[in-house]
Every structure is written in C-alpha cells, then in structure tokens.
C-alpha cells in the first residue's frame, strides 16, 4: 500500500481569493501616500491657468507668510533636472506653459491643508499666446507620423483599397467619433519621497513610495533626472489602487515629490487632487474615424479601409493606434489602415485600457454592423464569413484564434436568434447588438528568484506590480503549480525595485511576462532540490531565472486574444435615456489561470466599455484650453445602478506558442467590443444610428426625432 502523501490539487485553473485581501480590508496594505517616515511634509502643485504662454512672474510672498509653509518651488529656483526620455517630467525647469494645467509651482508645508492653502496663495502672471485645442479631420497641421503608439507603422496598405472599394457591389462609408476619455483610478497619483544625503561611504540615497505600474521605470527615470546612481534609488509600489494605463510611466507628481524632498531635507508626499489628473497624467486621445467597407453581395469583404485622426500635445508625440486592429480582424484582398495626428495645445495623451483597440474596434465593429444591415445578413454570420486563415496584415498564422467559436457560443448563450426582432414596451425601444473584440498577446522580458526555505515553505520574488488585478495571487498559483506544493506554502514578494527586474504592468502582458519568469525559476528549483540530499541549510536555497532571451525571440505566429460581446439595450423615447439590460461576453484568452480574478477583470473591462458607450466623455474647452469634465461629478463613470447582470464565459484554450502557462492577457480584452455592441443594439432597437459617443439623451432624442 502506497503511504506517500497525496499530490496537491493543481493550483492553476482553480479559483483563488486574493492573497493580500485580508491586509487590504484591515488597512494594513499601505498605498503611496500612506507611508509616514518621520518628519513627513506635504506638497501641493500649482497648475497653469492659461492655455499657452510663458510665466513672467511668480509671487510667493503670501504663501511663504503662512505658518507651516516650508518652501514654494518655482521655475526660477527649483532644482535643475538631468536628462530623461519623457519631456512631460521636466517640471519647473523653464517658464514655458505648453497647455493649461501644466505645473508652474509647488507649495510645501507641514500639513496637507496648509500646502493646499499656500498653493492657492501663489500668484502667477503670464504672457499668453494664441492657442489651438480643437481637433477636426481637416486640420491643416495634421500629418502622418512614422509610427503610431506601440511601435506600429502608422500607414499600411495592401492592394488598392480605394479602387477595390469603388468597385464593390455593396459599400459603407461611415465616420465615427470618440471623445477624450479619462482613466480615473480610485487611488489618484501619489508619491512619498525620502532623500538622504550621502556620507563619506557613499552618495545620496533616495527612497520613493509611488503609485506606479512599474517601479523599475520610475527608478531609472529618477536616477537620470537627479543624477543619482540606480543602485542608490529604491522605488516601492507594493499596493496600487487602480491605474488603467495612466500610471504606466513616471508622472510629474513623483518628480515634484523628490524635488521637494531634496530641497527641504524632509520626506515629502505629493498626492494629486483628482481635478488635476486629466491635465498631467494622460488621457485617451479623441479619435475621428473614417471606415470604408466594400463587399460582394454574399457578404465577403473586398476592401477594408480604416483612417484615424487624433491629437497629440506639443510636448511629446503620442499617436493613438486606433486603425491597427483592422489589420487583424477580417479577410479582405485590399486593406488600408492609416493614422494622422494633429499637434495641439493640449495635455499629452497616454495609455488608457486597450489603447488603440478600444476606440478602433468601436469604429470597425460599428461599420461591420452597418454593412450587415446593408446586405441584409445577420451580423454574427457576416463576421463568420470573413474569418481569415492568417493574420491579414502580416500573413502569419495565428498561434490560436477562436473568434468564430466565441461568436457561435455567445449567440447560443444569449439567445441571439430569438432576439433579432426589435420590440417595444410602452415608451421603451428594445434591441440587441453584437461586436467582436481582439487584443495582442505578448510577453516582455522579466526575471524572478525562487527560494526553498528550511521550514518547508517557498518564497518567490519578482518586481511585478499588482494594480488590484490579482497578479500577486496568480503568480503564487504559477509558483505552486511548478513547485508541486499547496498554494499556502508559497509567499510572493513584488512591487519593489530591489527585486529581480519585472516588466511594467501594462498591455495585458503582466501574468505572461512575470509568470514565465516565476515558472522557470520554480521549475529550476524543483530540479535543484531533486539533486540534493539531506536537509536544507538554514538560509535555504534559491534559483534565479531570466526570460530575456526567450521573450525577445521573434515568433512566426500572430498572437492575439479574441472575444465576442452581445448586448441588449432599451431606449426611452420620452427621456432619451439608453440603459443596458444585459451584457454577455465569450472570450478566447488562452488558459485561464484563476477563474475568479479573470472574471473580475473581464467584467471590469465590460463595465468601462458600458461607460464609454453611454456616459463617459470629456471636452476640451476651446476658449480656456482645459478639460471641462475634470472630476467625478462631471465625468460620469458607471455606478452600480448603471450595470446589469454581466455574463462572462470563456473557451478552454491553451496556446503553446505564448508562454509555459499557455495564457493570454485579459485585463484589456473585456473593454474592446463593448461600446460597439451597445451602439449596435441601440440601432437595432431604434432604427437610428448615432456615430458619436457617448449615447447621451440629447443625442438620442435628436436621432429619434430625425
């Protein structure tokens, strides 16, 4: 009879609650502004109140006269900064004001309230200059850049798309508009900086607690800006209260905190007020889309052309890659995708959940719905008929692609066929819509270290960042699975720049990147332990792993995740209010490592997509150059009452061409098709097409009255 202990249940693929959950609900998990080194003081930035110009004077006398004020830093006396790749970090370095909200001073005081009062007492005068903040498709300054965001070529063409379109028996030529959107994480950007002067034994040291998606990137930027060796800079980002992309690179708040700490000799916390965020931490740039689809009468596409126009700032070029998804989705012999960008006197755009794919797929999937209507073909069937055998842009085979299966299963679960007749319930028009989704699947080089400890437990270390997505828990599951031990015997340390280097938490690459390194380290540790005899030393044994060589290998496959969104909406003909009655998504996102956290991520993405469709929008005021919807009172994110019972399902997909776990990213896939599905459902319900988001009551009533 075998008396050996039973093997532990597999850790991967099983739901596991978040390891840090108890610490968060008990208040033990500290966020960036909650670290309290002795002598900590506070900084409050002063934003520019003009849309473009120069600072001509800064009167700090009133601020410095307030009790408890330590300093007011201005462009004239702030510490000078060294080089950095991102010019948005060069705060208080000169008198130029490139856009409204650009920081022109920083007040530092003993209390947060005094710092805020001091900032309000700073009087800045300007020499204003003419400004331009209005994006339109025919803007004379528009140009085609070499690259769009993500390193994608801005212009790609196969065949003669214009000629193929004109020759097509059935054509749609539509324009769509997506407004500026804002990330608005629950935790605003914050940093606590502690500058310690050097001694005879070594140079200065800097410790920073920052709300960031990548503490390694922050460390490198600060080391360069403040001329401190990398190994003398420590950045801790252990707990983050959301980000959605806006914390993906260092932001001005952390530079200001370090600057003030160096100037005052005191630890300094700078926590940005929410109204500042739209101007200084990035936003989803507005996008104007023209989509042309040509097809035969049987629905097979002959031409796809997607042209996108967006804005960027004059500080740094950032081009939303909104036409790139069209290079992935559907088979067509002629394909044109291009981007144009207009430099304006606006804050620099940046990443927001599924940059490019989110607004781009809204336009493409809306146009596919319009084509289905013109053809008299079911929208699900139209997509199935145009399923490509390989990636249209590159010609590479897909590592895995189960979009058709997602559409078929989603239609069955949703009861699609039975709901294709729009209906009316009193003043309510009710209809259904569908849209596809895609997002790239990739991994970035990362490293990890796995330790076997003498007490029989294991410690895994990698400089990953958990934004609230459950990354810490999934990494522990990957480790436990590779080590073949129960999950409760594994401890994970992340979010510290002294740990083995991990990639930034972005692009839905976190688990694939860090998990690969963790898997390799733990697998190697198992091999090492198998070769050992006798008890472990008191300090245990450890094994490192680095995936740089493997992750950088060019794959012969096109690697993407896919999904299908189905929506049922009601439109009130009296009030113009559109409400979502039901949302359903089916996804093909590789092996799902933790169903509990995966479902949460997909639901969260779909909720953001609902907000994009119905409530979220921002406006650049042409007179004053600022975002008028700059707080949560005016920028309407969905609340519980806006969100129906959302259904999330996935296919059992294991992609061996991605990483050892067979997983794909899911953090952004859920948002990609939601807005288009809702917009298509409104058209089905009402017979009216609104091509500008969001579907607010004023637009709905105007459409219904047309």
Portion in strands: 15-25%
Low-confidence spans: 1-5
CATH architecture field of the domain at 398-441 and 559-706: 2-Layer Sandwich
CATH class of the domain at 398-441 and 559-706: Alpha Beta
Give me the oligomer status: single chain
The strands making up the biggest β-sheet line up spatially as: 3-5-1-14-11-12-13
What's the total number of strands? Answer: 26
Helix content: 25-40%
CATH topology of the domain at 398-441 and 559-706: Aldehyde Oxidoreductase, domain 4
Topology:
Layout: H1 21-26, E1 41-47, E2 53-59, H2 61-64, E3 69-73, E4 96-97, E5 103-109, H3 112-121, E6 123-128, E7 147-148, E8 152-153, E9 155-158, H4 161-167, E10 170-178, E11 190-196, E12 205-210, H5 215-225, E13 233-236, H6 252-264, E14 268-271, H7 277-280, E15 287-295, E16 301-313, E17 334-344, H8 357-375, H9 379-385, H10 403-414, E18 423-425, E19 428-440, E20 447-452, E21 458-461, H11 471-483, E22 490-493, H12 510-531, E23 541-546, H13 548-551, E24 560-572, E25 578-588, H14 595-614, E26 646-650, H15 669-672, H16 674-686, H17 697-705
Helix pairs in contact: 8-16, 11-12, 14-16
Could you describe the 3D structure shown?
With 706 residues, the chain is α+β, with helices and mostly antiparallel strands. Among the domains are: 21-30 and 443-551, Aldehyde Oxidoreductase, domain 4 (2-Layer Sandwich), CATH 3.30.365.10; 398-441 and 559-706, Aldehyde Oxidoreductase, domain 4. The protein contains 17 helices and 26 strands. The strands form 6 sheets. It has a 7-stranded mixed β-sheet, with helices on both faces. Strands 9-17-16-15-10 form a 5-stranded mixed β-sheet, sandwiched between helices. A 5-stranded mixed β-sheet has the order 18-19-24-25-26, sandwiched between helices. A hairpin with a 5-residue loop joins strand 15 (287-295) and strand 16. Helix 8 packs parallel to helix 16 (674-686) and helix 14 crosses helix 16 (674-686). Residues 1-5 have low confidence and may be disordered.
């Amino acid at each position: 009879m075998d008396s050996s202990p039973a093997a532990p249940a597999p850790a991967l693929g099983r739901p596991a609650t978040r390891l840090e959950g108890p610490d968060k609900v008990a208040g033990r998990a500290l966020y960036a502004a909650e670290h309290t080194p002795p002598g900590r003081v506070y900084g409050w930035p002063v934003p520019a109140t003009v849309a473009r110009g120069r600072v001509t004077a800064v009167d700090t006398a009133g601020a410095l006269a307030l009790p408890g004020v330590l300093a007011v830093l201005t462009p004239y006396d702030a510490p000078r900064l060294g080089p950095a790749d991102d010019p948005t970090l060069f705060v208080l370095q000169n008198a130029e004001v490139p856009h409204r909200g650009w920081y022109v001073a920083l007040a530092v005081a003993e209390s947060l309230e005094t710092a805020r009062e001091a900032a309000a007492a700073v009087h800045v005068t300007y020499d204003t200059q003419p400004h331009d903040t209005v994006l339109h498709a025919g803007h004379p300054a528009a140009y085609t850049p070499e690259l769009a965001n993500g390193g994608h070529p801005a212009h790609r063409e196969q065949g003669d798309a214009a000629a193929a379109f004109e020759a097509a028996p059935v054509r749609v030529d539509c324009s769509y508009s997506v407004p500026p959107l804002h990330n608005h994480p629950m935790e605003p950007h914050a940093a606590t900086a502690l500058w310690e002067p050097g001694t005879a034994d070594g140079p200065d040291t800097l410790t920073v607690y920052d709300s960031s998606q990548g503490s390694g990137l922050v460390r490198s930027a600060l080391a360069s800006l403040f001329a401190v060796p990398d190994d003398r800079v420590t950045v801790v980002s252990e707990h983050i209260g959301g980000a959605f992309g806006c914390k993906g690179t260092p932001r001005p708040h952390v530079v200001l905190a370090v600057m003030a700490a160096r100037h005052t000799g005191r630890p300094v916390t700078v926590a940005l007020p929410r109204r500042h965020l739209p101007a200084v931490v990035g936003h989803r740039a507005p996008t104007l889309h023209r989509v042309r689809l040509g097809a035969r009468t049987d629905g097979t596409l002959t031409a796809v052309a997607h042209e996108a126009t967006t804005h960027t700032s004059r500080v740094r070029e950032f081009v939303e890659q909104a036409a790139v998804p069209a290079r992935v989705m559907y088979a067509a012999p002629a394909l044109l995708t291009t981007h144009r960008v207009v430099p304006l006197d606006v804050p620099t755009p940046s990443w927001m959940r599924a940059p490019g794919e989110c607004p781009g797929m809204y336009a493409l999937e809306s146009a596919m719905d319009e084509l289905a209507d013109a053809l008299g073909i079911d929208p699900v069937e139209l997509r199935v008929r145009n399923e490509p055998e390989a990636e249209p842009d590159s010609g590479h085979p897909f590592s895995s692609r189960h979009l058709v299966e997602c559409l078929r299963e989603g239609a069955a679960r949703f009861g699609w066929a039975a709901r294709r007749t729009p209906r009316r319930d009193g003043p309510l028009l009710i209809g259904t819509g569908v849209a596809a989704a895609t997002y790239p699947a990739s991994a970035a080089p990362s490293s990890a270290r796995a330790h076997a400890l003498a007490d029989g437990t294991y410690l895994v270390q990698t400089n990953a960042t958990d934004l609230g997505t459950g990354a810490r828990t999934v990494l522990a599951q990957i480790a436990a699975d590779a080590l073949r031990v129960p999950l409760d015997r594994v401890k994970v340390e992340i979010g510290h720049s002294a740990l083995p280097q991990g990639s930034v938490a972005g692009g839905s690459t976190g688990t694939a990147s860090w998990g690969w390194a963790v898997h390799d380290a733990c697998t190697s540790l198992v091999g090492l332990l198998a070769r050992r005899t006798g008890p472990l030393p008191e300090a245990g044994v450890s094994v490192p792993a680095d995936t740089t060589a493997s992750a950088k290998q060019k794959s012969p496959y096109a690697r993407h995740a896919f999904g299908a969104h189905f929506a049922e909406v009601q439109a009130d003909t009296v009030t113009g209010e559109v409400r979502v009655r039901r949302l359903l998504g089916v996804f093909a996102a590789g092996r799902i490592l933790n169903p509990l956290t995966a479902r949460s991520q997909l639901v969260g993405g779909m909720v953001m997509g609902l907000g994009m469709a119905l409530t979220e929008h921002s406006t650049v005021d042409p007179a004053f150059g600022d975002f008028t919807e700059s707080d949560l009172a005016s920028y309407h994110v969905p609340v519980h009452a806006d969100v129906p019972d959302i259904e999330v399902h996935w296919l059992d997909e294991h992609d061996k061409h991605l990483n050892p776990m067979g997983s794909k990213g899911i953090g952004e896939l859920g948002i990609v098709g939601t807005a288009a599905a809702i917009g298509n459902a409104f058209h089905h319900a009402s017979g009216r097409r609104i091509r500008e988001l969001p579907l607010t009551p004023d637009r709905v009533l105007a459409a219904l009255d047309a």
